[in-house]
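Input (structure):
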């Protein structure tokens, strides 16, 4: 179906085109009327005419018959009010549309989303949270829009730390054959580190092992695989617990690009881009300077002949463009790596590896802070594991449910704490403008009131409970929408605005916009319940209200699911 917004926009566009082809009507939902078109002001300025004059011309030329009425407000704003007939028709169409007005794109793109990317030698911690949650939401949104998404989990699975872990693994195997268990990944890493710092003989062995790893010595690779496989199996558990769509197949880490790195260097050399500086091989992309105005290098190969982080990212760009045929590439990585990515993209463009038609974006985000507004740490000052954060949230959700003491069936009761905990953590992250920091406050995040995940879940479950209380399935052939109560109309308008909220959220790569929209729907619902009894109303009025409730429930559940948040039936 054509969304309400798109219908209005295209009618207005035809009128604007008569004055200047392509002039943007700047159509928005509005508090003063249903929609507002603010494009007259800018157009009048360009045409050197009075805004009033231009507004009158648009009103005279726009064909809005059967759709809306339009009046001029203030110096030249256009207020639009949907006609009752059109509003009813749109709601009826929405009822019959699985996608609730969001059309699947006509040209599907291949979109590579690089996200999560923990370091394999460590357990996942709060520092991995935002990339994982935001990246997964964006991947889901792109899929829902109809694109082909290739997820890339660019894990740190190569290099010096692994040499150390391999030696430690060997020591442990010898001492009684204890198998390396990922349950204590951090402990394993810490023990290896302590030995490395204290024991010269161990240090020597680890150094030799780095060389063997780089040389792809088969026995070394076998041991490396054991560690990596177990780490990935552990990762998979965390993703499953958090409801993240990444799978083992999406793990394409630094080790995967290792064999491409020599080509990266030779090809940059033959393109004449490599400059040797103190033994290191560098590229100096124009426009990057340090504080003293000196050109900044992107170091492709270090002076010890080892490859750095930049080399594998250059190889990854080539792989994604040439082999995966990416039309779009998103890198959901924290803001401290902004310069790294800008330089990598610049060098890839210089080398001709990144054509202009490929949209390439570093999707940055702020930090997760503790109550003291400093980086979030445990009380003992250590990084907080994601698994323990989730456990704590589950416990609190369970306690909150006990307190509410609602009548829930057995399966719902066991699943709910997990669903609520995930919602609390994910929504708190996603509903913050990703550029901003936020404070990790479980009490606030898990509250059933306020702008929280559990609140939206509750708004959804409350709607479903209305239908459960009906006793029999509700599926009328047609519903007449008169929308006499202003709260009904207000809710209906909110439901019709799902497509533009989704599209704006996706276009700006800002999941919080979709959160803002869903929270607004939940608030419209509250006003609606206060003024419009549903189950105690009768006849056509009751049918209409049930239809609005049904649409609202579907909107909330689709909206939440596209963000990666469960919408349980009962709460
Ligand atoms: N593992 C890296 C880190 O800890 C993040 C990787 C992000 N992705 C990428 N293509 N560089 O910083």
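Output (sequence):
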């Amino acid at each position: 179906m054509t969304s309400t917004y798109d219908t209005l926009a295209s009618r207005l566009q035809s009128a604007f085109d008569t004055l200047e082809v392509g002039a943007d009507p700047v159509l928005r939902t509005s508090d003063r009327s249903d929609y507002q078109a603010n494009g007259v002001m800018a157009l009048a300025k360009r045409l050197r005419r009075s805004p009033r004059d231009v507004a009158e011309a648009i009103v005279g030329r726009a064909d809005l018959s059967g759709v809306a009425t339009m009046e001029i407000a203030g110096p030249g704003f256009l207020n639009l009010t949907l006609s009752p007939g059109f509003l009813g028709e749109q709601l009826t169409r929405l009822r019959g549309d699985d996608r609730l007005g969001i059309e699947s794109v006509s040209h599907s793109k291949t979109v590579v989303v690089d996200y999560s990317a923990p370091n394999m030698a460590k357990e996942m911690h709060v520092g991995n949270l935002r990339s994982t949650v935001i990246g997964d939401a964006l991947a889901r949104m792109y899929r829902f829009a109809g694109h082909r998404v290739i997820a890339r989990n660019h894990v740190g699975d190569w290099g010096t730390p692994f040499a150390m872990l391999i030696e430690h693994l060997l020591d442990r195997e010898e001492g009684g054959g204890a198998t390396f268990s990922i349950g204590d990944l951090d402990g394993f890493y810490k023990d290896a580190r302590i030995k490395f710092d204290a024991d010269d003989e161990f240090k020597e062995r680890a150094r030799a092992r780095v060389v063997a790893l780089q040389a792809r010595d088969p026995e070394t690779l076998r041991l490396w695989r054991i560690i990596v496989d177990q780490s990935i199996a552990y990762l998979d558990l965390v993703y499953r617990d958090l409801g993240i769509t990444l799978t083992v197949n999406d793990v394409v880490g630094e080790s995967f690009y290792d064999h491409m790195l020599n080509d990266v260097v030779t090809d940059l050399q033959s393109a004449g881009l490599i400059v040797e500086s103190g033994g290191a091989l560098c590229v100096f992309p124009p426009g990057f300077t340090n504080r003293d105005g000196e050109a900044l290098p992107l170091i492709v190969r270090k002076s010890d002949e080892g490859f750095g982080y930049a080399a594998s990212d250059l190889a990854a760009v080539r792989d994604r463009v040439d082999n995966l045929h990416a039309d779009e590439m998103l890198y959901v990585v924290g803001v401290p790596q902004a310069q790294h990515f800008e330089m990598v993209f610049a060098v890839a463009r210089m080398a001709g590896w990144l054509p202009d038609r490929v949209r390439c974006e570093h999707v940055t985000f702020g930090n997760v802070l503790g109550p003291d507004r400093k980086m979030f740490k445990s009380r003992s000052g250590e990084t907080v594991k994601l698994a323990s954060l989730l456990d704590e949230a589950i416990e609190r959700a369970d306690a909150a449910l006990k307190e509410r003491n609602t009548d829930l069936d057995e399966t719902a009761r066991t699943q709910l704490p997990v669903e609520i905990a995930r919602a609390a953590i994910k929504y708190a992250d996603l509903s913050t403008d990703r550029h901003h920091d936020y404070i990790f406050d479980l009490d606030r995040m898990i509250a059933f009131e306020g702008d929280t995940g559990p609140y939206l879940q509750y708004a959804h479950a409350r709607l479903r409970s209305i239908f459960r209380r009906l006793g029999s399935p509700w599926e009328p052939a047609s519903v007449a929408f008169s929308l006499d109560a202003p709260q009904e109309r207000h809710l209906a308008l909110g439901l019709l605005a799902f497509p533009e909220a989704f599209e704006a959220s996706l276009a700006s790569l800002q999941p919080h916009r979709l959160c803002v929209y869903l929270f607004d729907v939940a608030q419209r619902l509250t006003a609606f319940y206060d003024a419009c009894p549903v189950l105690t109303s009768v006849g056509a009025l009751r049918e209409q209200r049930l239809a609005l409730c049904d649409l609202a429930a579907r909107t909330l559940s689709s909206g939440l699911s596209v963000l990666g948040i469960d919408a349980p039936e009962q709460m």
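Notes: DSSP finds 21 helices and 13 strands in the chain. Residues 386-563 form a domain with the Isoleucyl-tRNA Synthetase; Domain 1 fold (CATH 1.10.730.10).
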